[in-house]
Specification:
The chain has 262 residues and is mainly alpha-helical. It contains eight helices and four strands, in the order αααααββββααα. It has one domain.
Length: 262
């Protein structure tokens, strides 16, 4: 791959910052509603509607895809990954003090591991042309989407394990033996596993990897000009500080809700 071209004077692709800013704002809204429902007992009917979960996954997916793209601009993805995973472990340690749940493998854990995997294997990723990499890893994301999704009856008994494939097209159901307590980072969690925030490597790492190939085009100025132009300065600024917004928004939201509802 050639990196002969680079981005403009700022070295940033502002539209990606703006989309990432919108995604983190949506995450804050989602976590606020989660806190209201599960910590403060406030009825939020919309929280349980199926379409709301779809919107949540779309914005989380956008955030992960762009995170993969910006890895192409990093000098050390391995270092960034270690730092991000460490912040995720802080979340794991602190969460039980504010709620009854744990965050075993949330978005920060996932991003940290993904950055490290990309940093260690970047030369291997570079063997694929950008378009081929985008299509291959995009397809793997779709095909592994249902692997961590177990089906249970009203009593909580597992009736079907996850599968590789596309629902109602072709499905290869994984055996129960493939799911183990220790494999939850991969998405192969046991029936008893629970995490307040959960982004397993399958399927999400494949979306992250697909984004890294899009990042090649972004870094080489191969995208349309409007990607490199700033449209909403405040949203762009939000997108450039997502890690700190993610770390700090929960204490702020919890504090405000405590004042209002307790």
């Amino acid at each position: 791959m050639t990196n002969a071209k680079t981005t403009g004077k700022s070295g940033r692709v502002f539209l990606l910052d703006e989309i990432r800013g919108l995604a983190i704002i949506c995450m804050v809204v989602y976590h606020t509603m989660y806190d209201l429902k599960y910590i403060f007992g406030v009825d939020v009917p919309i929280f349980f509607e199926g379409w709301f979960d779809i919107i949540r996954d779309i914005f989380a997916g956008m955030f992960i895809f762009i995170s993969g793209a910006v890895c192409r601009f990093s000098r050390s993805n391995l270092k960034r990954g270690v730092q991000c995973f460490f912040l995720g472990m802080i979340i794991t340690f602190v969460t039980p003090f504010f709620s009854e749940g744990f965050v075993w493998f949330g978005i920060l854990h996932f991003l940290g591991i993904s950055m490290m995997l990309f940093g260690l294997g970047e030369k291997l990723f570079d063997l694929l042309p950008p378009l081929a990499g985008l299509l291959i890893f995009g397809a793997l994301f779709v095909l592994t989407w249902n692997i961590p999704r177990l089906t249970a009856d009203q009593l909580g008994n597992i009736t079907a394990y996850g599968f590789f494939g596309i629902k109602n097209v072709f499905e290869w159901e994984l055996p129960a033996a493939a799911y183990n307590e220790a494999l939850f980072p991969l998405g192969l969690h046991s029936p008893k596993f629970g995490s307040s925030d959960y982004f397993p490597l399958m399927p999400w790492f494949f979306l992250f990897a697909a984004g890294s190939y899009f990042g090649v085009w972004a870094k080489e100025n191969a995208l349309p000009k409007f990607f490199y132009q700033k449209h909403l300065g405040w949203l762009c600024a939000v997108g450039q500080h997502t890690i700190w917004i993610y770390m700090l928004h929960q204490p702020v939201v919890f504090g405000i809700c405590s004042i209002i509802f307790r």
